[in-house]
């Protein structure tokens, strides 16, 4: 018999909502900013749990990234997750940036290494790995813990369904993910992938190794062959050859390519959810149409947000 203090679990568990988030990047021009803000307003209507804001490892867009984070906090109902890269940054510089994020009210950081400079040279004294950045963020957090009302900064990290281009093996990638969890990561978002089995395999291998944090699949709405090829070049992830062939056969400008790509993205997201994904992170490329098209076809269980409903009614 159970001890009398144990509370019975409800026999019909309530449905756990699927987390929803989007990735945005800081705009490079006034025109790009206007498009982005239309996208932000459209995405806001879907009440995501957070939106992530990318951060260029080269350092060129740091001010615009911070400006975007500020505006999201001040002018929208959205919660920002600030990406932060550490490659080439000294501990002092990165502490300053982490403190600046905390000062701005940011409570979620995606801790990344960033892509190495093209010549591969990382300056002496700079941080080497995302793991180093996680530990630095936790040290800043410890010094300022009173400001968090005993809460903490949520730290996300990158995870790889296919081998990271610089890594010796997929097993090494899992060791790195486990090390990032030990250093204080709270959740992971995956690199893009084109086959659902790759996500399921990552989760399976990670769990077997002792990784317990949520691993959220990063899904890119695949709306054109151009986008797939660009994405594959940027991420080093080989595209799905069969999908490329089908889109190539109909041509990017026919409208059919978009339909094929959206269907493939929906199938990928559904398969990831079937494999137990706790949420979806949509890489938007700062466009809302394709993200919303994919979402409309998925019908995710989402919590209702009374404040948003009130805002929309006014
Ligand atoms: P790490 O986890 O540090 O890994 C980098 C390499 O070092 C890997 O090969 C790993 O195997 C190896 N490694 C790590 N730790 C150790 C260790 N202790 N010992 C030995 N080897 C180790 N890039 C940007 O510039 N800006 C962004 O905003 C951005 N956002 C991203 C968001 C997501 C969700 C993802 C998946 C990637 C993003 N990237 C971004 C790209 C990312 O910076 C690159 O993939 C980069 O090459 C690796 O970053 P990481 O954080 O995974 O690095």
Give a quick summary of the entry:
This protein has 314 residues and is an alpha/beta fold. The protein has helices at residues 30-44, 62-75, 91-103, 130-143, 170-183, 196-209, 225-235, 241-250, 256-274, 289-298, 306-313; strands at residues 19-24, 50-53, 80-85, 108-112, 154-159, 187-190, 215-216, 218-219, 279-283. The protein has a single domain (19-298), classed as TIM Barrel, CATH 3.20.20.220.
Secondary-structure element order, N to C: EHEHEHEHEHEHEEHHHEHH
Q: What's the total number of strands?
A: 9
What is the C-level CATH assignment?
Alpha Beta
Q: Return Rg in Å.
A: 20 Å
With helices defined by DSSP (H or I, 4 residues minimum), what is the helix count? 11
| Class computed from helices, strands and strand pairing | alpha/beta
**What would the principal axes of the Cα set say about the shape?**
globular
| Beta-strand share of residues | 5-15%
Strand arrangement, major sheet = 7-6-5-4-3-2-1-9-8
The tally of domains stands at: 1
Distance between the termini: 54 Å
- Annotated CATH topology: TIM Barrel
The CATH architecture comes to: Alpha-Beta Barrel
Low-confidence stretches: none
Bound ions, cofactors and other small molecules, one mention each? flavin-adenine dinucleotide
What is the arithmetic mean of pLDDT? 92
**Largest sheet at a glance?**
9 strands, parallel
Helical proportion, percent range: 40-55%
